[in-house]
Structures are given as C-alpha cells and as structure tokens.
Design brief:
The complex is a heterodimer of chains A (about 280) and B (about 170). Chain A is α+β, with helices and mostly antiparallel strands and about 280 residues long. Chain A has 11 helices and 13 strands. Chain B contains 5 helices and 5 strands. Chain B is elongated and about 50 Å long. The chains are: A alpha+beta (about 280), B alpha+beta (about 170).
C-alpha cells in the first residue's frame, strides 16, 4: 500500500484516484497543509499532483481557453492577465506572493470554499470545469459545480482537469472586501463581466452564500438597461439598482469575518462600483 | 500548535526515506509523508533559521525558496520537494560572507526581536529578482506576506531599497 502517491502522468493520476478514491489530492497545498498542520484531518493517502505536467499547461482550444487545474495564481496573473483580466484581478488578491506561487486554480475549485477568490470571476465569465476519471471526462458549468460550503459535484474517483473559459470580450472587474489588502479571506467579493458584442452581463458573488453564485436578476436588469447603443456616462440610479439586485441575490450569514447585514451592504457597493468601472472602461 | 482532535488510531502511514537537496547539500531524512517542509527543516535536518510563526500560511516567517521561487515551508510537504532545489536562510551567505540583503538588514536595524527576519530576508531577495521594488508602495505590496510584530517595516523597506540601488543583481 502506498500512502504518498506521486503520479507523473495524467493517465496515472486518474488510475491512482480510481484505485484510491479516499486519497486527498494536493496541488499547491495551501489549503490541505493547514488541515494537516492543525490535525483537523489525517488522510490515509495523499495524491501529489505537482508532478503531472498536463495540469500545469494552458492553451487555446477552439474559441475557449483551456487552463490546466495546476496553473498557479502567479501564472494566471503573469501569463493570462490580458486574456482573463477578471480572473487575474482576483488572483492578485489571493494571500501573498508566496501563496500565489503555490496555490492553483484547480485547488481553489477543489476546496470549494464559498470565499474562494477564483470563483466569482469564473462565474461571471461563464466558465466550465472539466472533471475527469478513468470512466471518462465531463464538463460542468462553474455555476453547477458547487453544492454547499466546501462541497462540489466532484465524485470520489474524479480529479479536476482544467477550466474552460472564453477570453474576455469586454471589460471584467473584481472587487473584494477584507480587513487589509493582503492575506485576507474575503468578507464579500464580486466579479463582473460585460459582453458588449452580445449585450449581456455576467456576475459572480463570493463569500455571501453557501456557495459562490451568480446574480441572474441583476444580470438581466443590466443587460436590458445599459445604454449599449450610445455608450456614455452611466446613470447612477441604474448602477444603484444593479447593486441592490446583486445584494438581493446573496444569502449571507453572520460569522467571524463579518455579519450578514454588512455582507449585503458591501455587496451592493462592490456591484455598483465594478459596474461603474467596467462601463467607464467600455467607454474609453 | 494545537491539540489533535483525532483519535490516535487514525494515525497515518509510517516514516519513509526522503532525499532532499537543501542549500546545495543532499540530505536523506526519514519522515512521515505528511510532515511539512518546515517541521522537516527544523526538527529533522536541524536547520532552525526558518521560523514557525503561525503554521498556517499567514505570517511568512517560514519563507524559503523552492527552485528559486519563494514559498511557505509550512504549506509545503517535505516529501513533495524530492528533486527540487531548497534554499533556506542558512544558504544565503557564501564562503562566510553575508548576502548583501543580510548586511543591509543589519546596517538598517531592519528588525527588533528578529523572529520574522529570516523569512523577511528570503522574501526580500526573491522580491529583487521578481522586480517589484519600484517604490515603497510596491515594496510594501510585494512584502505583504511577511508580518513583523515589532513593526520594523520602514527599516525593512530601507534595507531593500539599499540593495536595490547598490547591488543591481543581488539575487546571488
């Protein structure tokens, strides 16, 4: 019996996960190691994914980008900042440079924290998660991936292979509330994507519901009322109403980082500001 | 750091031999697979320069380099570092001569109690290589993963500025 499993190919990784479904996958380790260090969890087996080269790659796949689950936040910022500006902006707010050198997009999804910084921009961009096992591959929209706090649709024999996401076709923004700029778990966060070509709007709410979630009514409202025909200054009432609808889509709780009331309030502000910034960017 | 809330019966796998390259030297250590690089360095290899502050990735006191990139030893499995190049604060000086950043921390009094200093210095040298030292705000932003409870931050920034301006290629 092996207890520290170190596959060096993707096929081997899937075979190992099928054989040892209880094995806990480790990528950057920034979540798993805290659980080990504080004896919150003693997995019988760890599955080290850092030596699987397929996971660390990204590239174009037709009209979308396929970003390997093992791509670090540092690389999302440095290599994908132009194509996925919303995700890069969120990545810049993750932990510290040391954390960003290790933490990965796939690890963030695997932990499935409601506060994960990578989730809102993936929701706003309409990204899809590619899950794989020896049984095959399936694609799950990010909006359907999370099932509860730290829970997802990932099956015991599955691993997260990649995220499929279209390059930004308009302004993308991300904003986050915390007690300082660095080393902060979001009290609330919000991501916005404008798609001027098809006149639609994407949203993602973080840390204000049992899972990251979209704000569909706010999306529909903004898509219907933004002055797409003659871009000019944004009506403050429109931005305010958008903020209210985003806030109404949340289902926050009181916890150590903040109250439900503060989360609702801050979300309305974040939504109003990001819409204003994104609209200004569009008009430039 | 905290008492286990798991029964002993759930103890995991036993020790295995792991080969690590630390500061250019090869070490064979016998550790459980779930031991962090931080505990391995301090308790097994006896390199205690790397400090344990929070053990959860928040303070930066355990900053080391793996393959020249700064990471947190407390959030890294030692066994996952096989085949990688690990550098700790003990590996910065060459032939008994302190690294310019170490000298600058001394000359600028960039510490009081000194506990965070090894992590600050490992981060600061990496920061120079990363090229994010344009002004104090940028230095502050990119040193934000290293806390100093004595608040020696102004002196730490001064030390970094000195090395940035005096030794352009100070990354070893």
């Amino acid at each position: 019996m092996m207890d520290f499993l170190t596959p060096v190919t993707w096929a081997d990784a899937l075979a190992v996960k099928a054989d040892r479904p209880e094995a806990v996958p480790v990528a950057g380790g920034t979540d798993v190691m805290v659980e080990l260090n504080f004896h919150r969890r003693r997995p019988a087996a760890l599955l080290d994914l850092t030596r699987v080269p397929e996971l660390a790659a990204w590239g174009r796949d037709g009209d979308v980008l396929r970003v390997g689950a093992g791509v670090s936040y540092t690389r999302l910022i440095e290599e994908l900042g132009g194509l996925l500006p919303g995700l890069a902006a969120a990545s810049r707010t993750v932990g510290s440079p040391q954390i960003r050198n290790r933490g990965t997009l796939g690890g963030n999804l695997g932990s499935a924290s409601p506060a994960g910084d990578g989730h809102p921009p993936l929701l706003a961009a309409g990204a899809v998660v590619e899950l794989a096992s020896v049984r095959g591959t399936r694609e799950v929209p990010v909006a359907d991936f999370f099932t509860g706090p730290k829970r997802s649709v990932l099956a015991p024999d599955e691993l997260i292979a990649a995220v499929l996401v279209a390059p930004a076709d308009g302004p993308e923004q991300f904003a986050k509330i915390g007690t300082r700029n660095a080393m902060v778990i979001a009290v609330s966060s919000f991501a916005l994507a404008l798609h001027p070509g098809r006149r639609s709007v994407g949203t993602g709410i973080g840390s204000a519901a049992p899972t990251p979630r979209r704000a569909p009514e706010a999306e529909e409202f903004a898509a219907a009322h933004l002055p797409w025909d003659g871009p000019g200054p944004l009506d403050p009432d429109l931005a305010r109403r958008f903020g209210e609808l985003v806030s109404a889509a949340a289902a926050p709780i009181d916890d150590v980082r903040g109250t439900a009331a503060y989360r609702r309030h801050s979300l309305s502000v974040l939504a109003r500001r990001t819409l204003t910034w994104a609209w200004e960017e569009l008009c430039e | 750091m905290s008492a286990s809330n798991l029964p002993d019966a759930e103890a995991g796998p036993g020790p295995v031999d792991v080969v690590l390259t630390i500061n250019g030297r090869t070490h064979v250590v016998r550790i459980e697979p779930r031991v962090s690089l931080l505990d391995c360095l301090r308790d097994v290899v006896d390199l205690t320069g790397t400090k344990k502050g929070c053990n959860q990735g928040a303070c930066g006191a355990c900053t080391v380099w793996i393959d020249k990139r700064r990471v947190l030893a407390c959030l890294t499995l030692a066994i996952a570092c096989e085949g990688r190049e690990i550098t700790t604060i003990e590996g910065l000086a060459e032939n008994g001569h302190l690294h310019p950043m170490q000298k600058a921390f001394l000359s600028h009094d960039a510490f009081q109690c000194g506990y965070c200093t090894p992590g600050q210095i490992m981060s600061a040298v990496a920061l120079l290589a990363e090229g994010h030292t344009g002004d104090d705000a940028e230095i502050g932003e990119w040193m934000s993963g290293n806390l100093c409870r004595c608040a020696a931050y102004p002196n730490i920034r001064a030390a970094i500025r000195e090395v940035r301006d005096g030794v352009p290629h100070a990354t070893r």
